[in-house]
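User: Hey, my collaborator sent me this sequence without any context and asked if I could get a structure. I don't really work with proteins. Can you help?
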Amino acid sequence: MRTPLVTDDLAPALADQVLALAESARAIDGVAPLSEHTLLRIRHGAPSGSSRFHVIVEDGHAVGFAFVERAQGEPDSGEVVVDPAHRERGHGTALLRSVREDAGARGVRVWAHGRTPQAVSVARNNGWNAVRELHKMRMPLRDIAADEAGGPWEAPELPEPRLRPEVADRVRLRTFVVGQDEQAWLETNARAFADHPEQGRLTLDDLLQREVEDWFDPNGFFLAATKDGGVAGFHWTKVHADGAGLTDGEPVGEVYVVGVAPDWQGTGLGRVLTLRGLRHLRDSGLPWVHLYVDGSNEAAVRLYESLGFGIWDTDVMYAPPADEAPPSPA
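Assistant: No problem. I've predicted the 3D structure and written it out in structure-token form, which is a compact way to encode the shape of the chain:
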């Protein structure tokens, strides 16, 4: 069991090794071990003081990795992955210990994607407890014959998205304009997700990084624009060219993020925007759409279930034993 290298910045060659490690784990486990946000931090770096990279290197190659993002007023949030060819050697335990010892004053929590047996075992053996769940939900956009995933699957009807008259007089639905809508969107996103430990902290750099990703398509990014140039709500969709575990490589869609400004909540705008994006993905010929929703957000879960989504899988966030004294702040 090696002691991880802990750094604020990954050298390009080491970053490439970590990306390859994550892809090896995805191929074996059937689920991506690192979120898109973490992958962007690996590729583009992170703002000074905002993140920490923990890497286990053997024979000049990265075989274990953890990423932790600092959050003011919140526990640090992290992810851990070990190369499938180097598991059961204590690397997962070493990484958990490293992020624990390096944590900020409020401690650290770590996500395990897809509730894989390996992640559950490492967490249990180290006494870490599940404290949060993120449901992954899916819905067919066209009728699908029975396959290895079950079925057959029947696509639900998607009603025409219609704004209430009092709302239609104040907003219009349109697509995102690159170079024009960034600041207005960031302001609404921050307000809509003020209590969300990840989404609400997105910066202009975070948005610009996503705009240059291959998957970014402003034609699938819907805004409810107000007459004064603001954004009342939005639905940002995404297409996964690799099938995201739902198909053997046929592209599928994602409800990437839906947000409504606090003063517009309760107007039905969220449902209308959701339907607008879903119909766009369906009309693009995609077979499936999926999304992530916090397990504690019962209202959102009910909304998506009413549209035809069902829970497919669950990511779990783990925290160290509550009876452990937290380490001194690094």
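In plain terms: Residues 157 and 307 are 8 Å apart (CA to CA). You can pass these tokens on to your collaborator as they are.
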